[in-house]
Amino acid sequence: MTKIRTGIIGGAGYTAGELIRILMYHPQAELAFVQSSSNAGNPIFEVHRDLVGDTDLVFVADPDFANCDVIFLCMGHGKSKEFVQSNDIPASVKIIDLSHDYRLKSEGNDFVYGLPELNRDLIRGAAHVANPGCFATGIQLTVLPLAAAGLLTGELHVHAITGSTGAGQAPSKTSHFSWRNSNVSVYKAFEHQHLGEITQSVKQLQPSFHKAINFIPVRGNHTRGIFVSTYTEYTGTIEEAIQLYETYYASHPFVFVTGENPDVKQVVNTNKAILHLEKHGNKLMILSVTDNLLKGASGQAVQNMNILFGLDEKTGLNLKPVSF
């Protein structure tokens, strides 16, 4: 099989670094170029220092669409749409966007929402894919089986904590080590930007759902990984709930339902999502753990690429967790 020629637009950030690392060792992919206006001409390993000795590629200023089958957009929110509108991208080049720009359905937006556990069949035939947000991925995985069965009857209550890499590579007051270390804080309570795509997905499966999704995002003092706890009203037994989730995710290779209370270190550096369910009175609690840079971003983007090009979803994503 001819290798998939891949290009990265906006190659200096955390998600691009993870994409480079995965694509360099993907057996069916070839990294054609990595674009970065601010780093053009510089070796990639000078920015992504974990790649010292792995590649001699340098950043380019302009993308080479003629030598590419798929591009990954790793730019800030708002910049992806600007890039697509201002560049003559050939119809033969597939696009996977890691920003927020195309996640919400709107007139003229032909991007398929790229959560494989929700839209795998639609992704297969897509030309353009909007990769989900990191919080949105972990949260949606806790409720998709309930929504698919029409069993969401009450409000959703979500508390989720993310690592500092979720804020991106550019330093800020709340990502500065001396502020973030040994510290925890809430931000964008009840109004986080990922609520739109979460609501959209839930209503896709259960159109009658009209309850509130109460989401409290938390900045954690760790580097990477998202821990989500969701609870909602549920009248069934815990055994019925576990069966529902195991059946729904049986054909999805990166999602695992476990009887043990999970922790973030089980998934860091992997594309896995681990779920755990408990019943407390009339409430069902669902926990999920994911790596915000992989299943929440770059790993999922490569998973989507694999689906787009007819490969096994797990190709190139046999990543091992960091357990210490």
Q: Outline of this structure?
A:
25% of the residues lie in helices and 21% in strands. The protein has eight helices and 13 strands. Catalyzes the NADPH-dependent reduction of N-acetyl-5-glutamyl phosphate to yield N-acetyl-L-glutamate 5-semialdehyde.
Description of the molecule:
25% of the residues lie in helices and 21% in strands. It is globular and about 60 Å long. The two termini are 38 Å apart. Helix 1 links the parallel strand 1 and strand 2. It folds into 2 domains: 4-131 and 297-308, NAD(P)-binding Rossmann-like Domain (Rossmann fold, 3-Layer(aba) Sandwich); 134-290, Dihydrodipicolinate Reductase, domain 2 (2-Layer Sandwich), CATH 3.30.360.10. The protein has 8 helices and 13 strands. The strands form 2 sheets. It has a 7-stranded mixed beta sheet with strand order 8-9-7-10-13-12-11. It is α/β, with parallel strands linked by helices and 324 residues long. One of its GO terms (biological process) is L-arginine biosynthetic process. It holds the Pfam family Semialdhyde_dhC_1. It catalyses: N-acetyl-L-glutamate 5-semialdehyde + phosphate + NADP(+) = N-acetyl-L-glutamyl 5-phosphate + NADPH + H(+).
What fraction of the residues are assigned to beta strands by DSSP?
A: 15-25%
Give me the side-by-side strand order of the main sheet: 8-9-7-10-13-12-11
In helices, the fraction of residues equals 10-25%
Q: What do we call the CATH topology of the largest domain?
A: Dihydrodipicolinate Reductase, domain 2
